[in-house]
Amino acid sequence: MTAHHAAAGPLSMPAALAAEHGWRTVLAFGAHPDDLDFGAAATLAGFAAAGLRVELCVVTDGDAGGFDSDGPEAMTARRHAEQRAAAATVGAAEVHFLGERDGHLEPGHDVRRRIVGLMRRVRPDVVLSPHPERDWESMQAAHPDHLACGEAVVRAAYPAVENPYAYPELAAAGLPAFRIRHLMLYAAPAARRNLAVDVSGLEDLKIRALDAHVSQHPDAQGMRSAVRAMMRERHRTAAGSGAPEGSAEAFHLVTVNGEGTIAGF
């Protein structure tokens, strides 16, 4: 993986960002149902509106979440339905569920093999994922499953997905190695954020996607207010004081394979 980050302005619109990097296909991972909607729903909606193919993958079933449940199986079914509804709101073409147990996720080889297999089927230009580094300013964002998901996705993105000798059974099944170009990591510590996506005008779609996860919000109005305030703050941070008010989502954008990438460096 190259040490440098992909160049980006302080604020980029989703369509312009995709055009700048030549992205056409997006694969976005979340540890639980609703993680992607908190972290990136507006950006994903902007990508979909710009004509990109957006696919989502939820690694655990979210069976340990919620406030009103008849047990893990009922919660799993409920949360799958909620995520599908949220995905439809943002324009995602497909949702994949890996079925790991909520609260027990580890970035081991079985999980990574399935992530690599999905990456090779979808062949995305850019992959979204939770950040694998803990943000000590937000323990909620740094849930252990989020960190494990991020670590598994990053390890899959390099080197496993592009190494023909990694998981040779995948190549034998018709899933050859290929190179991922970029990672966009959400829920990143502040020091790692180097990209703000201007999602002004897409705020309501993000809130609608989050509202689909009704099992997770004992105070839905409080959630909506907090999310809108965070998007406004992300925009202020990127645009600077005195700029018109707007909304943004923040990421750590990483170049995995760029023009100057040399194998092994």
UniProtKB/TrEMBL annotation:
Transmembrane segments: none
Annotated protein name in UniProt: LmbE family N-acetylglucosaminyl deacetylase
PANTHER family linked to this entry: LMBE FAMILY PROTEIN, N-ACETYLGLUCOSAMINYL-PHOSPHATIDYLINOSITOL DE-N-ACETYLASE-RELATED
GO molecular function: hydrolase activity, acting on carbon-nitrogen (but not peptide) bonds, in linear amides
Keyword annotations: Zinc
Signal sequence interval, chain numbering: none
InterPro entries noted in UniProt: GlcNAc_PI_deacetylase-related, LmbE-like_dom_sf
Record-level GO BP terms: glycoside metabolic process
